[in-house]
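ok trying again, last paste got cut off:
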Amino acid sequence: MVDHFVGTWKIESSDKFDDYMKAIGVGFATRQMGNMAKPNLIIAVEDQGFISMKSQSTFKTTEIKFKLNEEFDETTADDRKTKTVITLDNGKLVQKQSWDGRSTAIERSIEDGKLIARCIMGEVVAVRTYVKEA
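nice, full thing came through this time. structure:
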């Protein structure tokens, strides 16, 4: 179940995120903004089995609504148009994005009460750690 992901998560730390953005092809100016943004991640379960995931910061707010294991079209915060599928794999929410013959994965898991998001592009792995807001 995704229930333990539900809630509002505040970013606590971000490691190698600039390297990750570079690897997926994000331009310099957008990377600067992305590095400064401290997004909250809001995850909710809605009607008919839809899950919503909203990333909210002063820079930009993006939201996706999806059903597990069903591909959908996503426009990412850096404006990539991707085919995305999110699965629940061994307790991890795994988001796979494909575009222009490339692909990346974001694996979200709960570890020690924190939400850990691993952004993976080839050899590059960025780790973003979130704490749950009371």
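cool. The CA atoms of residues 21 and 30 lie 9 Å apart. The chain has one domain: 3-132.
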